[in-house]
Automatic annotation (TrEMBL):
PROSITE patterns registered for this protein in UniProt: VOC
Name of protein: Ring-cleaving dioxygenase
Domain of life: Bacteria
CDD domains named in the record: PcpA_C_like, PcpA_N_like
InterPro entries listed in its UniProt record: Extradiol_RC_dioxygenase, Glyas_Bleomycin-R_OHBP_Dase, Glyas_Fos-R_dOase_dom, VOC_core
Keyword rRNA processing among UniProt keywords: no
Domain VOC: from-to ranges: 7-131, 152-269
Keyword Oxidoreductase: yes
SUPFAM superfamilies named in the record: Glyoxalase/Bleomycin resistance protein/Dihydroxybiphenyl dioxygenase (SSF54593)
Annotated organism of origin: Paenibacillus beijingensis
Gene Ontology molecular-function annotations: dioxygenase activity
UniProt keyword terms in alphabetical order: Dioxygenase, Oxidoreductase
Length: 315
């Protein structure tokens, strides 16, 4: 194994109400809505991308918000917790901000780090942790200064139905390094500065059910298109069955389901989200791939209107 991923590229989850989704991730968490498009496989459903100012790999959480979605159950075969990093000294700000919006927070410690854990409006598990690594965000919204704003992913907690097999993929295919065990978790690290810490409960988990409030897949970074093809070959040589390379407009993707049941994607860093709109105008217009442009009027008519807005705290 010679390839190594820098860490998480993006995480994609299911939701129901698109405006509530925007309100939580842009309004409460202060992330930038960097791309407003559709599910290329189901054009009646939005595909919304939230991240830092430029939508850099390692900062992007994406959602398929569909009002008719069933409610899922978080469990084995899924990302159990999505971890965000904030600058050192910022947790007190976030504890106060979340409380102001009536969002319950639990404090916990893992690997000598303190976490604020909470759920989004759909029940998706999230947590914040302070770390030095990664550049401060350049995006400021609703009074969240750049020295407090979310930098991007810290990593994720993977819930596996077969933790030994998940661990094997992390180490032997993706090239992460095991750095220790603590309180029933094993920790793995990639070489990138963000999205680089993965924790896996050593106990196998009962299988979850997909639906609103759960993660659909986690995507890992490939630095360019040439390396992406190498990743496809490496996954195949390791006994898994990657998909053909799929053009997702803002990155190329391959998918495979690892032995612990989690759907893994490997996505290219290029071309990025400014490929079809100006960097200063990201997320303002519904962007469609060329093959859907003839149906734009019909597609837009079927989508609920959404807007990024500042929210009034509940207390």
């Amino acid at each position: 194994m010679t390839l190594q991923t820098a860490g998480i590229h993006h995480i994609t989850a299911f939701a129901r109400n698109p405006q509530e989704n925007v309100d939580f991730y842009a309004g409460v968490l202060g992330l930038r809505l960097v791309k407003k498009t559709i599910n290329f496989d189901a054009p009646e459903v939005y595909h919304l991308y939230f991240g830092d100012k430029a939508g850099n790999p390692g900062t992007i959480i994406t959602f398929f918000p569909w009002p008719e979605s069933s409610v899922g159950r978080i469990g084995g075969g899924q990302v159990g917790v999505t971890t965000y990093i904030v600058p050192v000294g910022a947790l007190a700000f976030w504890e106060e901000r979340l409380a102001g919006f009536g969002i319950p927070v639990t404090k916990t410690t893992r690997f000598s780090e303190q976490y604020l854990q909470f759920d989004d409006n759909e029940g998706l598990h999230l947590e914040l942790v302070e770390r030095e690594g990664g550049r401060n965000s350049e995006w400021s919204f609703d009074g969240i200064s750049t020295d407090k704003a979310i930098k991007g992913f810290g990593g994720a907690v993977l819930f596996s139905v077969d933790s030994a097999r998940t661990v094997s993929v992390l180490e032997n295919i993706l090239g992460l390094t095991k750095v220790g065990e603590d309180a029933g978790y094993a920790r793995f690290q990639a070489f990138g500065e963000i999205g680089n810490i993965i924790d896996v409960p050593l106990a196998n988990m009962n299988r979850g059910i997909g639906g609103a409030g759960t993660v659909h897949h986690i995507a890992w970074r490939a630095k360019d298109f040439d390396e992406h093809v190498q990743w496809q070959q490496e996954v195949s040589r390791s006994g898994y069955y990657p998909t053909p390379v799929i053009d997702r407009q803002y990155f190329n993707a391959i998918y495979f389901r690892e032995g612990g049941g989690i759907l893994f994607e490997i996505a290219t860093d290029p071309p990025g989200f400014a490929v079809d709109e100006d960097a200063d105008a990201l997320g303002q217009k519904i962007m469609l791939p060329s093959w859907f442009e003839p149906s734009r009027a019909q597609i837009e008519a079927n989508l609920l209107p959404i807007q990024v807005r500042e929210l009034e705290a509940k207390k």
